[in-house]
Design goal:
The protein is mainly α and 50 residues long. Helix content is 48%, strand content 0%. It starts with 13 loop residues before the first helix and ends in a 10-residue tail after the last helix. The relative contact order is 0.16. The model has no long low-confidence stretch (mean pLDDT 75).
Length: 50
């Protein structure tokens, strides 16, 4: 979910934003990487089909 397809972020918490970006760029967890990948898939909405 890390800011996929955004041009900018407006925030008053710049230091927090920098920490989040650094954590996800330097040492992303497996769950975070899967979340980013799945959010980039065309037509993926997260619903489970039976």
């Amino acid at each position: 979910m890390l800011f996929t397809s955004v041009d900018g972020i407006i925030t008053d918490q710049l230091s927090t934003l920098k920490e989040v970006v650094k954590e996800n760029n330097d040492h992303p967890s497996y769950a975070t990487r899967l979340s980013i990948y799945s959010s980039q898939l065309a037509g993926f909405n997260g619903d489970v089909e039976n």
